[in-house]
């Protein structure tokens, strides 16, 4: 589906992203992690054809065979928002403050040829799909009348409007408080067709993605299934990230989550892995698996 092969990003003579390669299969959720400045956003923006002025991409990236890099803007315009969509960190800057949110959701559909009345109707449906209460009412609201979490859901509705094949999220929950963040992550995991999820928060990746690509200094230093990379990191940088994260390594006692330590195979209330972890059985006792709710390895071997 998405295939990125030898992607480079330059600002003049400076190479900011070097030889990045990874793929995303249909329905797959892949996390792109790395410290600030490691090149995550530029990688994503290259795929959207949205690099800042003076910054250029080379190499190859295709979505179901369609080239995304080095193609004319008018071709990209057709793909953007239709085949691949992006949700950014700060919805307030992405939404038009003077336009009702329903009209903004409808607009991305009319731009891609859907009749206006149909787009308006579908906009309300989409606002409901991203679990906004009373979507008809929300459709008539202006962005400033909504909370940060609600605005981010509107952005997700916009991103999903034309049923893209790939959704890219760049730190979509960083600005939200913890409870709202968790709900948003669950929603993204549920509705994304295939997902590239950018964050510097390993716990977030652990709760949403199946695979992870680790970037450092503009390069990919490691990639693989979450469990493999997080339980057995090969690169020193990944080890450092893990050590600095809220995730606890194998064998250590879990921190108390909501007042209780989950038994092996048990999940704390609201754990997003509750129904998803392949080890949500006795197997958890045999093999430590990453099943946490974003806070820890919930399948754990008690220390001592
Ligand atoms: N318009 C630009 N011109 C020149 N350099 C840039 C430009 N945009 C980003 N950079 C540089 O490219 C590098 C990668 O930036 P990028 O935004 O992709 O990092 P990131 O991993 O997404 O970081 P963050 O997590 O802080 O968003 C950084 O060193 C950054 O300073």
Automatic annotation (TrEMBL):
Keyword Iron: no
Membrane topology reported for the UniProt record: Peripheral membrane protein
Pfam families for this protein: ABC_tran, oligo_HPY
Subcellular location: Cell membrane
Domain ABC transporter intervals: 2-242
InterPro entries referenced in this protein's UniProt entry, alphabetically: AAA+_ATPase (IPR003593), ABC_Ni/Peptide_Import (IPR050388), ABC_transporter-like_ATP-bd (IPR003439), ABC_transporter-like_CS (IPR017871), Oligopep_ABC_C (IPR013563), P-loop_NTPase (IPR027417)
Principal place of residence: membrane
Origin superkingdom: Bacteria
One CC-aspect GO term: plasma membrane
Keywords: ATP-binding, Cell membrane, Membrane, Nucleotide-binding, Transport
Molecular function GO labels: ATP binding; ATP hydrolysis activity
A GO BP annotation: peptide transport
UniProt family annotation: Belongs to the ABC transporter superfamily.
The name this protein goes by in its record: Oligopeptide/dipeptide transporter, C-terminal region
Taxonomic source organism: Nonomuraea pusilla
